[in-house]
Amino acid sequence: MRAASARRVATVLVVVGLSVAWSAGRAQAQTPPPECRPAKEWPARLRLEYAVTASRGPFSISGQSVLLFQRTGTAYSIDVNTDAVALYHARQTSRGTIEAAGLRPDEYIEDRTNRATQTTRFDWNGGTVAFSVAADTPGQVEPGLQDRASLLLQLTYLSRLNPATPSFEIPVAGARRVSTDKFTRRGAETLRMPIGNVESIRVEREGDADQDRLEAWFANGWCGLPVRIRYTDHKGGVIDHRLRAASIE
């Protein structure tokens, strides 16, 4: 679900010249949303399935991404698996605890096709963040700090608790450093999705030369979940996730 995959998938597209038609974004019969829990209550289990396209210029490739969140007491786990045909696979895992302020990750692991595993560990008592690919330059923990897998679920939680807040600033541990992402509400939009027509609020993190633009559409009728997620890099590459199924326990 993170923006770094845009560059990897775009490279594959250029090499193989693959163009795959994708129709999952066309509106289908309206799918009933899952039953929602109170805003402050984390579910025992959440599964989100997305149809995914990665595109650059005239080329596109289709795939899927599945996010599975599970809670046992105050401990949580997140697993995100993204696949594009038989060419690309990525897995992101986050483990940690749930506090009053939301998710507090202890470890984040990222595996991608043709790349070494990256691990980020959070030492909340010691106040540091250790990066496996930048062992000599640890980061500092900050209140509300997230990893790449927990970020959007944390933003969902904050948005549901504070629906009138115009923007959110969330520190995020990437592969080598900690930075602060600012998300701004951009207004209401109606989406035509695999699950049907959905009323949503678009939230945006603006991009620059070092960070991809990230847009997420949150739907109150779908428990405030991100029904669409889109990453756009500064070269025009796009990865677009559209929700096709959701279950909450």
Overview of this protein structure:
This protein is 10% helix and 53% strand. It has helices spanning 4-16, 151-161; strands at 45-56, 59-72, 75-84, 88-99, 102-112, 115-123, 128-131, 139-140, 167-173, 178-193, 196-205, 213-219, 225-232, 238-248. The longest helix is centred in the N-terminal third of the chain and has 13 residues, at 4-16.
Characteristic terms for this protein:
single chain; 249 residues; mainly beta; 14-stranded antiparallel sheet; 2 helices; globular; disordered N terminus
Which SSEs are present, and which pair or pack?
Elements lengths: L3 H13 L28 E12 L2 E14 L2 E10 L3 E12 L2 E11 L2 E9 L4 E4 L7 E2 L10 H11 L5 E7 L4 E16 L2 E10 L7 E7 L5 E8 L5 E11 L1
Antiparallel strand pairs: 1-2, 1-14, 2-3, 3-4, 4-5, 5-6, 6-7, 7-8, 9-10, 10-11, 11-12, 12-13, 13-14
Can you describe this structure in just a few lines?
This protein is mainly β and 249 residues long. The chain has one domain. Helices cover 10% and strands 53% of the residues.
Number of strands: 14
Structural class: mainly beta
Average of per-residue pLDDT values: 88
Helix content: under 10%
Strand arrangement in the largest pleated sheet = 8-7-6-5-4-3-2-1-14-13-12-11-10-9
Biggest beta sheet summary: 14 strands, antiparallel
Q: State the shape.
A: globular
| Percentage beta strand | over 45%
Low-confidence stretches: 1-27
In total, the number of domains comes to 1
Described by its quaternary structure, the protein is single chain
Radius of gyration, in Å, reads: 17 Å
State the helix count: 2
How far is the first residue's CA from the last residue's CA?
Answer: 22 Å
Compressed to H and E, one letter per element, the order equals: HEEEEEEEEHEEEEEE
